[in-house]
Design brief:
The chain is α/β, with parallel strands linked by helices. It has eight helices and five strands. It has one domain: HAD superfamily/HAD-like (Rossmann fold), CATH 3.40.50. Helix 3 runs parallel beside helix 6. The N and C termini lie far apart (about 85 Å). It binds 2-acetamido-2-deoxy-beta-D-glucopyranose. This is Acid phosphatase 1.
């Protein structure tokens, strides 16, 4: 009898123990899975937002563990909504900023970046590892030569609104002079026309920091008497330095950093 009781007790405690152990293991496993899944997502989203805030600078590649996340974001309707919102804010500014702008031979200017502002390079990066590999300029420029870059639709709409308001539009790009024909063809093909200047990098600009090259291009516009009302771009190096525009509008870009 005592033996039987002991046996029962032993079996019961074994069951309880294993139940507790099982529960613990399951619980832990589940918890760990959730933590690592959402932990990674949080990590990658905070990497992305800190790139946008210009806290993370000069990155050469997207962190390996975030390539999937960044690829998804840059192909998502969220990225499109973020671009749309930035452009809408620009339109709000446009509706109140510039009543003095008359157009014609005026000196009121607006500046745009080209890549990932007027034209999208997302299709290129989609087939080249979404920023996870070091940029191969030869390959990217080969793709640009094909003039297949689509327009960013909200920016295309804004471009024509700004032009309609009588601003002169200047495009300042880090693309090289050798890409001028391809760039013009591509821009016209997707619906851009009527800009006042397309400023590209010549050989002497190639070893300079982009920020200095772009600031100098603005300096030249100001010396010619232009009033720079706004800049729309996807890189901080498009806004930094003097002279400044009255307002700048940053479009998201987690694929590459130009400094
Ligand atoms: C860069 O791209 C070019 C053209 O596609 C290719 O020939 C070259 O091997 C690539 N370089 C590297 C380092 O991947």
């Amino acid at each position: 009898m005592a033996r039987k009781h002991f046996f029962l007790l032993a079996v019961t405690s074994l069951l309880i123990c294993s139940a507790v152990a099982d529960w613990n293991i399951l619980h832990q496993r589940k918890k760990n899975n959730v933590v690592s899944g959402s932990g990674l997502k949080k990590y990658c989203e905070s990497w992305r937002i800190n790139v946008e805030l210009n806290n993370i600078r000069g990155f050469e590649v997207v962190p390996q563990e975030c390539i999937g996340y960044i690829g998804k974001y840059m192909s998502s309707s969220q990225y499109k909504a973020d671009c749309e919102r930035a452009i809408e804010e620009c339109e709000v500014y446009l509706s109140s900023c510039c009543d003095s702008v008359k157009g014609g031979e005026g000196k009121d200017a607006w500046i745009f970046d080209v890549d990932d502002t007027l034209l999208s390079t997302v299709p290129y990066f989609k087939s080249h590892g979404f920023g996870g590999k070091k940029l191969n300029l030869t390959s990217l420029e080969g793709w640009m030569e094909n003039c297949k870059a689509p327009a960013l639709d909200p920016t295309l709409r804004l471009f024509h609104k700004i032009k309609g308001r009588g601003f002169k539009i200047f495009l300042i790009s880090t693309r090289r002079e050798s890409l001028r024909d391809a760039t013009v063809d591509n821009l016209i093909k997707v619906g851009y026309h009527g800009w006042s200047g397309l400023i590209l990098r010549d050989l002497s600009d190639e070893n300079r920091r982009v920020q200095h090259y772009k600031a100098e291009a603005r300096q030249k516009l100001v010396k010619e008497g232009h009033n720079i009302w706004g800049i729309v771009g996807d890189q901080w190096s498009s806004f930094d330095g003097n002279p400044k525009a009255k307002r700048t509008f940053k479009l998201p870009n987690s694929l590459y950093y130009v400094s």
